[in-house]
Amino acid sequence: MREIKAMIRPEMFETVYKNLRAEGHCCMTVYHGEGIGRQGDPDKLNASLEFPFLHSKITKIEVLVADEHEKEVIDIIQHSASTNHKGDGIIYSSGIDKAMSIRTGEEGESVL
Q1: pTM of the full predicted structure?
Q2: Is the Cβ–Cβ distance between 63 and 28 less than 8 Å?
Q3: How many helices (H) and strands (E) does the chain have?
């Protein structure tokens, strides 16, 4: 099992979501946040009182998938979220050793 995390531009989320759903990848967790990266888009940087430095708005997507779906999900996110400009974001994948349904106690890929 794999956990795929992607930090993307908020305005690209709907496209990413629709394309993942169209290919049968229904389930994800989504967060809105702020980030600072060396590849930030200078036209999208904003200062705030909470963070006294320049930062960009981001949407973070977390998707858990079976190993065989990792490449497909990463490709969908990359192609759907790309504007070909600095600050488009980053995707990374990590291994999952165990997954368990809180409600049923069931374990393994079936809980994904």
Answers
A1: 0.84
A2: yes
A3: 2, 4
Q: How far apart are CA 36 and CA 59, in angstroms?
A: 13
Q: Which phi and psi angles does 12 have, rounded to 5°?
A: -95, -5
The residue type of 23 is E
The DSSP bridge partners found for residue 58 are 33
Tokens in use for 96? 């999952």
Residues pairing with 62 in the sheet: 5, 29
CA gap 20, 55 in Å, rounded: 28
Give the tens place of pLDDT for each residue, 30-79. Answer: 999 887 766 555 665 555 556 555 678 899 999 999 999 999 999 999 99
Helix, strand, coil content of the chain in percent (nearest 5): 30, 30, 40
- Residue 46 has a pLDDT of 58
Phi and psi at 85, nearest 5°, equal: -125, 155
**Bridge-based pairing state of the strands 89-95 and 29-35:** unpaired
